[in-house]
């Protein structure tokens, strides 16, 4: 695999997705076991697109945990940062609090994707990991996985995001993905919108992770997109294509595209 290492930190879990849509969980006749968890999705998205990625996080030392580790391995993601916890069960949505300093030191990009930055003890673990990676010179990437419905209105969401942006001198690039409306980008020098591709979406799970994976795969070896709007727009178009493709199949990981699938999609 080519390029710098992208280390993705956080949880990996199993989503139980009802086999029939439009029913409550209690009424579902059956469930599909869908491996997921945003940081793990991003690591696999990178690997499918030809990048080098590692996952760091905690899994239960049970059948599900080893199944998930197997999925990472099959997809070419380094799993040396996996910590199997004897006292934990994988089916639950674990928040990782374990550190893997060696991997953070090798990271060219350190990515974490979780709302858990706001709750302890995950918050301290995340911040520590970030510090190690940053000291080693990595580019930091954070996806809070915030959901628009959590806010009273899109205007308020926008206002909140822009107030973070105004305060954060160190942020080089801020992206807000908007589902079938595409994405907005902001840098200190320019901002704009990239429209989404028109597709027949069947399951949008993992679209954001696919988008982030694509972005990081290219960004890891070429930071010039942060200064060059034309290049950035081209990269975001590629990332939006990855997001769009991911919505056309059920589940997150099974729907993450390879480079050739993206090129076929873009050439169509
Ligand atoms: P998240 O999965 O984090 O909620 P989004 O739903 O905003 O993220 O999706 C990320 C990107 O994937 C979007 O910016 C868009 O380019 C693409 N995408 C998501 N949903 C659709 C859709 N229904 N149609 C086309 N593109 C989509």
From TrEMBL:
GO cellular component terms given for this protein: cytosol
Keyword flag rRNA-binding: no
Example GO molecular function: ATP binding
Biological processes, Gene Ontology terms: fructose metabolic process
Family of the protein in this entry: Belongs to the carbohydrate kinase PfkB family.
Boundaries of every Carbohydrate kinase PfkB domain copy: 5-96, 169-257
Keywords: ATP-binding, Carbohydrate metabolism, Kinase, Nucleotide-binding, Transferase
SUPFAM superfamilies noted in UniProt: Ribokinase-like
The keyword Kinase belongs to this UniProt entry's keyword annotation: yes
Top-rank taxon: Eukaryota
InterPro entries: Carboh/pur_kinase_PfkB_CS, PfkB_Carbo_kinase, PfkB_dom, Ribokinase-like
Name this protein carries in UniProt: Carbohydrate kinase PfkB domain-containing protein
